[in-house]
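Let us practice reading a record.
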Amino acid sequence: MYLAIFIFIILIVILAVSIEINVKSANDTIKIDAKIGLIRFVIPHQRLLSKAMSSQLHKSRQEQKDDFKRLFKNRSYLNRLFKHSSLTMFYMARFTKEELYLNPIQNGVYWMISNQLQAYFNHHFKMVDQGNIKLIYDEHYENIDYYVSLKTDLISILTAILIRK
């Protein structure tokens, strides 16, 4: 009896482990790091992307089109994962550091894109921390183009994978 309770509590602790994923773009390079529980590590996405690009170069044009169509058909897993995750930080740098009235076309495009992204985040994520969505110039993020921080847990990932339509 005590062993079953102990195993149940350990299982709950393991499934409640926090997972945080940060995506940062600085000077046209993307850096992705993750934190699972207390362990933080960098995801080697450059090698993964280079392998994917080299495998795509060896495929025919029709196979590439089929892969592209399959990507959009299978995005329901990603959307379900977003529904079980929360967006803790989103920062997108402005094109210019000037005021809106000095450069209205570029800043207008910026505001349209940023509002579309904010609407997408509000619609697709379980919780969005509105105080941490920064669409203005911030000196703390001097050389950063954009920064996205997602937070979820293991049970949410398993739920998103196992639930079917």
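A brief commentary: The mean pLDDT is 78.
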